[in-house]
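Good morning,

Attaching, inline, the C-alpha cells for the sequence recovery test we're adding to the shared suite. The designed sequence is right after.
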C-alpha cells in the first residue's frame, strides 16, 4: 500500500502505474490518496478544493475524476475496476462517502449540491444468499446522479439508483429507486412528492439576501 500526501500529488506516477493528474491547482487540507493495487488513476480539474479527502483504491484499474471549480469533503472507496466521476461546479457542504465495489461506478453530474453526511453505495458490503438456491440475491449496481441535483442532509443513495436532472431529495431520505427529472422526493424509502420543480443554486442564507421571483433554468 502506498499513501500519497497533497504535496506529492502533482505529476505523481509510481512503479505500479498509479497516476495522479492535476490540470491546475488543488487546495487539499487533511487529505490523502492510498493505492492498494495497480493501474489506478486520479484526475483533478481546475480550481479544486478538498478537505478531509480520503481516497482509497482497494484493487486495480480504479478511476476517480472531479471536474472544475469543485469542493469535496469526505471519503471515496473504490474496488477493482470501479470508478467515481464528478462533474464541474460540485459542492459538498460536509463529510460524505462514495463507496463502489464489484466493477460498478458512481457518476455525479455538474452543478450538484450535497449537504453533510451523504452516502452513495453501489453495494451492501456483504453478499446475501438464498438458502434454498444458494444464489446471491444482492448484486452490486452502479449509481447515476444527473446535473443540478440537491441532496439534503444525511441522504443515502443505494445501489442501482438513477436520479435525473434538477432534482431535490429531502433530508434523511433513503433512495432505493429511480427519480425522474425535475422531481422532489423525500422519505424512507424516498417517494416523489412533487413534479416539474427546479431549484436555485444560491442558498437563502447568503448576503445580500437573494430575492427569488423566478428561476433561470441552466
Amino acid at each position: 500500500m502506498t499513501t500519497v500526501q497533497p504535496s506529492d500529488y502533482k505529476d505523481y506516477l509510481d512503479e505500479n502505474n498509479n497516476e495522479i493528474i492535476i490540470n491546475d491547482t488543488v487546495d487539499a487540507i487533511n487529505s490523502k490518496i492510498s493505492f492498494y493495487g495497480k493501474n489506478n488513476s486520479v484526475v483533478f480539474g481546475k480550481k479544486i478544493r478538498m478537505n478531509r479527502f480520503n481516497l482509497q483504491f482497494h484493487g486495480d484499474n480504479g478511476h476517480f475524476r472531479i471536474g472544475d471549480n469543485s469542493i469535496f469533503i469526505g471519503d471515496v472507496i473504490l474496488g477493482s475496476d470501479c470508478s467515481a466521476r464528478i462533474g464541474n461546479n460540485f459542492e459538498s457542504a460536509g463529510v460524505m462517502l462514495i463507496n463502489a465495489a464489484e466493477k460498478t461506478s458512481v457518476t455525479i453530474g455538474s452543478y450538484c449540491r450535497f449537504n453533510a453526511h451523504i452516502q452513495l453505495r453501489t453495494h451492501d458490503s456483504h453478499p446475501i444468499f438464498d438458502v434454498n438456491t444458494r444464489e446471491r440475491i444482492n448484486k452490486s449496481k452502479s449509481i447515476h446522479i444527473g446535473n443540478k441535483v440537491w441532496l439534503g442532509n444525511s441522504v443515502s443513495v443505494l445501489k442501482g439508483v438513477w436520479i435525473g436532472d434538477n432534482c431535490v431529495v429531502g433530508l434523511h431520505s433513503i433512495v432505493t429507486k429511480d427519480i425522474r427529472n425535475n422531481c422532489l422526493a423525500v422519505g424512507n424509502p424516498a417517494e416523489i412528492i412533487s413534479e416539474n420543480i427546479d431549484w436555485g443554486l444560491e442558498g437563502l442564507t447568503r448576503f445580500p439576501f437573494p430575492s427569488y421571483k423566478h428561476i433561470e433554468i441552466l
